[in-house]
Amino acid sequence: MQGEHKRRGIRVEGVDGTRPAVGGAAPGAGPDRRGAVVAALMLAMALAALDATIVSTAVPQIVGDLGGFSLFSWLFSGYLLAVTVTLPVYGKLSDTFGRKPVLVVGAALFLLGSLLCALAWNMAALIAFRILQGLGGGALQGTVQTLAADLYPLEERPRIQARLSTVWAVSAIAGPGLGGVLAAYADWRWIFLINLPVGALALWLIVRHLHEPPRKAGGTRARVDWAGAVAVFACGGVLLTALVQGGVAWPWLSAPSLALFTAGLVLLAAVVVIERRAVEPIIPGWVWRRRTIAAVNLALGALGVLMVAPTVFLPTYAQSVLGLAPVAAGFVLSVWTLSWPVSAALSQHVYRRIGFRNTAMLGIGAASLLLFAFPFLPYPGEAWQPALLMLLLGGALGLFQLPLIVGVQSTVGWSERGTATASVLFCRQTGQTVGAAAFGAIANGVLAARLGGTGGHGTGDLDSVTRALDPGTAGESVRRAIADAVHAVYLGAAGAAALAFLVLLLVAPRRFPVLRD
């Protein structure tokens, strides 16, 4: 490893003790211009973050207007698939052509998709335009995170990352309420139209103030691995569709599931062959050959898995077991968005002393204990008990995620930063998809066992049970079954957190090889 680090012009160094000399010309030099660019990045991130929450509260109005209730889940699945499979493609393109053109094109696609969503005439059209939105959303998420690292040296990166985390937190809290207000007092189409002025301002700031250093004249012409991009897109789309729809649209062992998984594995083999032969592959081999990046990819994949437990299952638990109204149930979940950005902002004071890896291990170790403690809460309990656990969990995950992202970005140069950032975000997104499928199966299995197969509510899955009940009016047997199902999910999430801890302990180097810019 030492020889590899010397060849790459880096030194093996944690951030404890001494600080690496990180600096260099950042795009958009000058404090005024950099401030304008940061404002644009926060607006762009707000577009992607709000979209994840604002649509959910307007589903009844959308279905009432357009019909297509059986397809509405694809409003979310289609967007998620498009974002996930395009992340590695945009990461490589930003390393090849620069961040600015990729961000501008992504924002334009997102805004075009938003406009078309507002004009949709039926559910199929709305789903298609949501996928177009997702094609732009992938560029927003990956490129914004990469530019944040380009703009600031290592010691200042937690500040901008904390701001971006705050954007996500505010969006998580404000999104459902804003969506409900627009759907109730205006029209659901305004949920998409509101993106246009925000996105237009972000685009103007980017075009006006973001100026990247010119590329060297006389260099070799950039080669784009378009075959690899298509193969990655197709493979990711097929496998993620199989995971998202398996057990929902069709049984896991049905012909559609088996056909999709088989096609996905064939496409995965094709991706490996194409990428090994490509001069400039979309997913280069060094992403997995370097211990630091490979370990962070796996750890953040586990983060994506464990995040499903609170975000998907806690609201159901709060309403059906604790008897809370939807707004109060949402507050129980949203408290972790208050502690997460605060913890992330303060994490720099920890990792400067004990290093990136040890800080992340401290955070994920605490998270595993908190997730493991959830099933031991008293039944039925009080709302403040899961809320307190969520508040502490947000603080633990802030210590875990941000040091890993900042650490990975600090081990690569400008020409590799987009690819490295996209790889960790891709793994986190994929982890969420895998977690949703796995924990859905676990919850359904527990419910079926507790309620005698179907529990008298049709399919026996968690959604069908809770849809048939008003909050707080569930029978005792059903409430206990739902509590047991959510407890099993939280134990699975604790296992994912423990796995992330072991990956960092056994795979990640004790000190990240920080690059001298």
Summarize the structure.
By secondary structure, this protein is mostly helical. Helix content is about 75%, strand content about 0%.
Description of the structure:
The structure is a single chain. With 517 residues, the chain is mostly helical. It contains 20 helices and no strands. The longest helix has 37 residues, at 414-450. The protein starts with a helix and ends in an 11-residue tail after the last helix.
Oligomer: single chain
Low-confidence stretches: 1-26, 454-460, 466-472
Distance between the termini: 20 Å
Number of strands: 0
Structure classification:
mainly alpha
The number of helical elements comes to 20
- Mean pLDDT equals 80
Secondary-structure element series: HHHHHHHHHHHHHHHHHHHH
Helix percentage range? over 70%
- Tell me the fraction of residues in β-strands, as a range: under 5%
Rg:
23 Å
The major beta sheet can be summarized as: none
Which outline best applies?
A: globular
List keywords for this structure.
single chain, 517 residues, mainly alpha, 20 helices, disordered N terminus
List the helices and strands and how they pair.
Blueprint: H1 2-7, H2 31-54, H3 59-66, H4 74-97, H5 99-118, H6 123-151, H7 157-185, H8 190-193, H9 195-209, H10 226-245, H11 255-277, H12 286-289, H13 291-320, H14 326-334, H15 336-354, H16 356-373, H17 384-409, H18 414-450, H19 462-467, H20 476-506
Helix pairs in contact: 2-6, 2-7, 2-9, 4-5, 4-6, 4-10, 4-18, 5-6, 5-9, 6-7, 6-18, 7-15, 10-11, 10-18, 13-14, 13-17, 13-18, 13-20, 14-17, 15-16, 15-17, 16-17, 16-20, 18-20
